[in-house]
Amino acid sequence: MTRTDVIQKAHGLSLDEAMKVLIYHQQGEQWIKGLEHDKLQDSMDEFTELLLKTPRDKVQAFTTYVKEKYWAKPEEDINKAEFQRRWTGGQAILNSKQLKK
User: Fold this and answer.
1) Rounded distance, CA 71 to CA 99, Å?
2) Residue 96: pLDDT band by 50, 70, 90 thresholds?
3) Could you tell me if 69 and 93 are in contact, meaning their C-beta atoms sit under 8 angstroms apart?
4) Most buried among 2, 60, 69, 87, by the most CB within 10 A?
5) 23: closest CA among 4, 2, 49?
6) Model pTM?
């Protein structure tokens, strides 16, 4: 099974949602943290494991954030500071102790 398959199955995400969540992580690790290919693959595996251990409601909130607030709209021009702010917002959801309702 691929990372995408595992995430989809564990949390009931669509293929599009699972891909967006994985691309979110890849972009941050590569563009913000500067990880090279070998370390990036390990990071992607760790992220997949994190998602598998995270409660479904928190993953759903994170996925909604990624879909609605992380990805730029076609007419938006995102600078580096805005990209980092959006990426950090997603991390805050995953790292929060409880999901706020």
Assistant:
1) 21
2) confident
3) no
4) 87
5) 4
6) 0.87
* Structure token digits, residue 7: 């995430």
Dihedral sign (CA 33, 94, 10, 20): negative
Sorted by sequence, the CB contacts under 8 Å of residue 22 that are 6+ apart come out as: 3, 4, 7, 44, 47, 48
Q: Spell 55-73 as b/e; 16+ CB within 10 A means b.
A: eeebbbbbbebbeeebeee
Tokens 């994190």, located at residue: 50
Q: What angle do CA 80, 42, 83 make, to 5 degrees?
A: 10
